[in-house]
Amino acid sequence: MSTIIHTSPLPDVAIPDQSITDCVLASAAAHADEVAITDGADSSYTFSELERAVRSLGGGLRARGVGPGTSIAVLAPNVPEYAVVFHGIALAGATVTTINPTYGPAEVRHQLADAGASWIVTAPMFMGTARAASQGTGVEQIAVLGEADGAVPLAPLFGDPIEQVPVDFADHVVVLPYSSGTTGLPKGVMLTHRNLVANIAQMEHTFVPSGGEAALAVLPFFHIYGMQVLMNMLLAFGVRVVTMPRFDMVRALELVQQQRITRFFAVPPMVLGLAKHPAVDDFDLSSLKQVFSGAAPLGADLAAAAAARVGCEVVQGYGMTELSPVSHCTPEGQFRPGTSGVTVSNTEIRVVDPESGVDLGVGERGELLVRGPQVMKGYLNNASATAETLDSDGWLHTGDVAVVDDEHHVSIVDRIKELIKYKGFQVPPAELEAVLVTHPAVADAAVIGVPDEEAGELPKAFIALVPGAEAPTLADLQDHVAAHLAGYKQVRALEVLDAIPKSASGKILRRELRDP
Questions:
Q1: Among 14, 129, 159, 195, which one is least packed by beta carbons within 10 Å?
Q2: Could you tell me which of 493, 504, 494, 438 has the C-alpha nearest to residue 471?
Q3: How would CATH label the architecture of 201-415?
Q4: Judging by DSSP bridges, how do beta strands 290-293 and 313-316 pair with one another?
C-alpha cells in the first residue's frame, strides 16, 4: 500500500529558534512609536509600550515564583491587556491556559484542575465565575485587569523587566488551549514555543501586509484562531490590532470605518452578516483589502456574495487547535472559490480513506492528515486520545474530509463524524448549509442527521430567518437545494429557530440541536 504525500507548493521557510514572545516582539523596534494594539477607545499600546509592559510583567511574575512548571489561567475578553498578560506569563517561562469566558463555573473548574493552574488572571465582570470555579482546585491567586474585591490588581504585579526565562523551545508547553471536541470533556492541547513560532513563520508566503495596516480582532483570544492569527501573528508582522470584546455587526462596521481596517478576520456567520446585514450599506468599507474566514467551512456562493457587497476578496483558510492552528491558507490573489487555499510552507498532507486507510490522490475525498512543525505535542493527561489522533511518524488525523485539486488547493468537505448516512449515501451537512443560506429568506442554517428506520439517517435543516422574511416551507427549500445538489443530498425535515447555536469560534453546536 503506497503512501501518497501532497507537499506544499510554497517554498520552505526558516523557523527561528526562539520563544513565541521574542518572535512576536521581534518587530517592535522597527515599529516602536506605532500603535500595536488598541480597543479604539480607552486602551492602547504602541509597540515599544507593549514590549516594556510584557517584559515588566514577566519580571514581576518571575519575582513571585512564577516560572517553568507554573500554569496560569487567563479568563478574559479581547482587550489590549490580554497580549500583555499572555506574553508576560510566557516570558516568565510558565504555561498559559486560555479559558472561554462564557463558560460556567463547572466548565472552568474542569480546565483549572486539568491544567494544574495555580493562578487566574481575569476581568472584573468574570470574578464571580473565577471565585466559584477555583474552589477545590490548586488556584492560589486571582489577579484582575482593573480592581475587584478578593483579587490582586494587575498593576502591582509589574516588576523589573526581564528577558525570556530559558526553556526548551521544542518541548516546553507554552500554551494549553482546550479543544471543543465532538464528544466528552474538552482536551488540553499541548502547544510548544516552537509550534507557535513555526506557524507564524509559515505564513511568510500567504500573509504579506504592507505598511500601516490594521486588522479587526473580534474572534476570541482564548481560541487558537484569535490567539495565534489575530494576536500573535499580526503583532509579529507589525500590523495594528483593533480589539473587540464581543461581536456586534454595527460596532464592527464602525471600527472598520474609523480605524481604516484593512483585514477583517471572520468566521462564516460574520461573512453571512457582511453579505446580508442591512447596516453594511451605511458605512465606508473602502479600506478593506481582504476578509479572511476560518474555523468552519465557508460556501463559495456566500463568499462571492460578501465579496461583491464589501468590495474586496473574501478568502478562507483551514486549521485546528492541534495545528497551532494553520495548515492551509489562500495566498493573496490566488483565491479559488470553495477552497481553503494551499498547504502552507514546511507542511505535508495526505488524504486517506477513513475505513480502509488507503491513500488517495488528486480529486478523491478522504480524511485529511497533516504533518509539520506546527503539529501539537499531544493532549494533556490523555495518552489514549493522543494515540488516536497522532501517528508515531508525526501524522495528525484531523477528522475532516478533504479533497485536493490539481492546483494544490484543498477543500474541506465535512467532519467525518458529522457525515449523514442517508440510504448508504454520505451527505455532508456543510454542503447543504452552504446552499441553504443562499435562499433569500434564510439568514443562517445548520443540518444534522436524525435517526430513521428506513433511511438510516435523514438530513434535518434548522434555519434562522432574515428579519421580516416569511418562513419558507420544506418544499420551498427542497426545490432550492435540488437546483444545486445531487438528489440524495436533500433536506428531509425542517425546523425554524430564532438563532443557530454557535460556539465562540463560529462552529455550529450540533449537539445542542440533537439534544436541545
A1: 14
A2: 494
A3: 3-Layer(aba) Sandwich (3.40)
A4: parallel
